[in-house]
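User: Hi! I'm working on a homework problem where we have to compare a predicted structure to a textbook description. Could you give me the structure for the chain below?
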Amino acid sequence: MKNISVEDLKKRIDANETIHLIDVREELEHEDYNIGGLNFKLRRMQDMAIEEIEHLKNEEVICYCRSGHRSNMACLILEHLGFTNTVNVTGGVVAWQEKFGK
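Assistant: Happy to help. Predicted structure tokens:
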């Protein structure tokens, strides 16, 4: 697992890079505020119900959550399930909002 800062992630988004961004928070959190990622809850990963994202096993997968803790866990779970290039957004949505506003 690697880590990425919100600043570096925003640069990549602004540069229109193709990225696989996954929001591991609950639906209500995602609906309240998100930075554009697919909402794929941590619980689904814990249950190994990853069929929807399994095609990304050999791609870079960037995970985020509220503060970076759940997404860190998500990256570890995905690695255990065979994902080869996981990235955790350090500080999560909290850091994003502090840096770039709501």
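For your comparison, note the following. The CA atoms of residues 37 and 66 lie 13 Å apart. The mean pLDDT is 96. Good luck with the assignment!
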